[in-house]
Amino acid sequence: MKKYFILFVAIILIVPNFVYSDIVSFKVGYFLPRAQSDLWETEFENMDFVKGDFQDTNFGFAYEYFLSRELSLVLSIDGYTKNKVGIYKDYVGYADYDGDWAYPDYYEGEFSPTHNFNISITPVQCSVKLTPMGRKGKIIPYVGGGLGLYLWNVRIQGDLIDFSDPWYDLDEQVTIYPIYPTDAREENKISIGYNVFGGIMIPVANRISLEAEFKYNMIKGNLTDAFEGFEPFDLSGYQITIGLNYWF
Predict the structure, then answer these.
(1) Is 231 helix (H, G, I), strand (E, B) or coil?
(2) Per-residue pLDDT reduced to its tens digit, 166-188
């Protein structure tokens, strides 16, 4: 919800400038996170998540200001949010008066330890766009890149097996681990990142064109007390979008 509120506010701020802009675009895309930092790896190792579970659609808005026949500036905003519930692999849970405990899954178990893994990324980007063949053709290829402010959140909520604190059940002759309720979160964080992209625009009517684009976002966010000991969180990803352009 916060992502869409930010998107709405950005549109309201940009609308008064439309008279000076040359293209307004509305986009729908598919975001594929790169997911190559140790918090991601820990989740994939312990939970029944796979990287594909965190791929999802997203929506965006952009306006483009022409500087010359080949060069323009693009201000864009879009968002990605994914919440996934995962079950711990290879463990089941038992509860007693000392708390909850994780046992190997060859035991029947009283419950399955689970938690939510939630990621939200909202980039506000300013990019330079180059159309080397100009904007008059039936197919208009382009490339570009730029900087952005990335608003992001990450949260783990639910059961957490503490593998750093092994215990030994003398009756069962097995190593077990305590299970704790957790609500670890990094909220309203802002980091600076980069993007590169390429695509084509195809005019289909007067002042209207369709767009297909591939973009790579490069960004890592520093984790603090909620995820102490983890390296910067990988927020990078690949984004495939199609869009509708209106030319002023």
Answers:
(1) coil
(2) 999 999 999 999 999 999 999 99
Q: What is the pTM of this model?
A: 0.86
Task: Say how far apart CA 189 and CA 155 lie, in whole Å.
Answer: 12
Residues 159 and 115: beta-carbon distance below 8 Å:
yes
pLDDT tens for 51-60 read 999 999 999 9
Element (H, E) at 190: strand 174-205
Residues making up the chain, counted from first to last: 248
Report the relative pairing of strands 56-66 and 140-161 from DSSP bridges: unpaired
What 3-state class would DSSP assign to 70? coil
pLDDT value, residue 97: 85
Q: What is the pLDDT of residues 110-126, one digit of tens each?
A: 999 999 999 999 999 99
In degrees rounded to 5, what are phi and psi of residue 15?
-50, -45
For 35, counting Cβ atoms within 10 Å of its Cβ (0-12 exposed, 13-18 middle, 19+ buried), the class is buried
How many of the other CB atoms lie within 10 Å of CB of 40?
21
Of 124, 182, 184, 185, nearest in space to 153 by CA: 185
Instruction: Give CA–CA dist 102/174, Å, rounded.
Output: 11
Q: How confident is the model at residue 63 (pLDDT cuts 50, 70, 90)?
A: very high
Do the beta carbons of residue 3 and residue 122 sit within 8 Å? yes
| Structural domains for the chain | 2-10+22-84+119-155+188-247 (2.40.160.20)
CA 186 to chain centre: 14
73 within 8 A of 64, measured Cβ to Cβ: yes
